[in-house]
Structures are given as structure tokens and as C-alpha cells.
Design goal:
single chain, alpha/beta, elongated
């Protein structure tokens, strides 16, 4: 029986040890390396050349999704499983776009995780395009609802971000202080569940284009 070589990335030592014990108890699976940070993950992957990499989506110094993207770029033969504590459509979509083969919740039973490892090692892709499209649709619908619930000034700032304006340019267009714009931006990001300006700009531009085409 061939052995599937597994690599673990999680910034919690207890989690890594628990997963290692679970996986190493199986005759056909073996943990060949671990990393506690995004920074050390790639060099360990290069040294161990695993068949499957299990990556925590949130790391202390980065994202498991970014590590997945790097692994898939440098070692496309390595199948990646994203491990997360929360059901998150945004993370699911990002994982799919990064080339992850699967997306597993930490609350799953041990047997389910082992089955997912074996499935992706054999070339399966539980994270299929149908799942990704559904997540994208939910994100769009929830995002559009959230935009409609923004305060009038926040909605105007959101629209101007979509037009590519900086905070200073938005302040000039709205005749308010730049600090006021920064407060609006912080507030609308929280309401929309976004962390990056580029993400908000892209979403605002898509909404604007869709309205023009209606």
C-alpha cells in the first residue's frame, strides 16, 4: 500500500499535534512536515515534497489561501486542503481561485478529514466550480443588500471608491474633511465585510456596470 505524504500548516501547536496524531495513526497516511507560519511553509514544502498540504485559512503572519497559491504555483502536483473554523463564502471562493482541491471545517469528524485527504490525494476535487459559483452568488446577493443599507454619505463614498478616487479626492468632491472620509470608509468596510480598498472598488464598479446594463 502506497503512503500519502501530508504536510500541515497551522499556527496553533496543539492543533498541529492533534492533526499529526490523527493522520499518523493511519497506515496509508504520514505527516512528513509541519509549519507554524506562512513564512516557513514554502521551504518546508520544498524539502518534504508532500502529496497533500493541509492549510489553516488564518495564520498569524498571513493566509493559508496565499500559501496555497504559492504551493500550487511552485508545486502543482501538491493537492491543497484549506482548513477553517468558520463557514465563509469569501474564503471558499478565494480558496478555489487559489487552486485548492478542498475546503474543510475544523468541526468535522476525524474520519471525514481523513476521507478528504484520501480523496484529494487520489485527484478528487470536493471544491468544485458549482460550489464556487453558489458561494459567489451568495456573496453578491448579501453584498448588494448591505450596500443598500449603507447611510447616504457612506453609499456616496462607496460609489466614488468604485470610480477610483482617493480619500483626498472624495473629500474634495463631497466638500468634507479627509478625516471624515476615512471614518466613512472604515464604517462601510465593516458593514460590507471587506478589508481591502481594491475589493470594495471592484465590487462598486461591478454594481455600477450592472445598473447601467439593466
Amino acid at each position: 500500500m502506497s503512503t500519502t505524504r501530508v504536510f500541515l500548516v497551522d499556527d496553533h501547536d496543539v492543533v498541529r499535534r492533534g492533526l499529526m496524531a490523527l493522520i499518523n495513526a493511519e497506515k496509508d497516511l504520514e505527516v512528513v512536515g509541519t509549519a507554524g507560519s506562512a513564512a516557513t511553509a514554502m521551504e518546508t514544502v520544498e524539502a518534504t515534497r508532500p502529496d497533500v498540504a493541509i492549510l489553516d485559512v488564518r495564520l498569524g503572519d498571513g493566509s493559508g489561501v496565499e500559501v496555497c497559491r504559492e504551493i500550487r504555483s511552485s508545486f502543482p502536483e501538491v493537492a491543497c486542503l484549506i482548513l477553517t473554523s468558520f463557514e465563509d463564502d469569501q474564503a471558499l471562493v478565494e480558496a478555489s481561485l487559489a487552486g485548492a482541491a478542498g475546503y474543510v471545517l475544523k468541526k468535522v469528524q476525524g474520519g471525514e478529514l481523513l476521507a478528504a485527504i484520501r480523496r484529494v490525494a487520489a485527484g478528487g476535487r470536493p471544491l468544485d466550480m458549482a460550489t464556487t459559483r453558489l458561494a459567489l452568488r451568495r456573496l453578491r446577493e448579501s453584498g448588494e443588500t448591505a450596500v443598500e443599507e449603507l447611510a447616504p454619505q457612506e453609499k456616496r463614498v462607496f460609489e466614488l471608491i468604485g470610480e477610483g478616487l482617493s480619500n483626498r479626492e472624495i473629500a474634495e468632491a463631497m466638500y468634507v474633511a479627509e478625516k471624515t472620509v476615512k471614518n466613512y470608509v472604515t464604517s462601510l468596510f465593516q458593514k460590507l465585510g471587506m478589508a481591502r480598498r481594491t475589493e470594495a472598488a471592484a465590487f462598486a464598479a461591478r454594481l455600477s456596470e450592472r445598473r447601467r446594463n439593466q
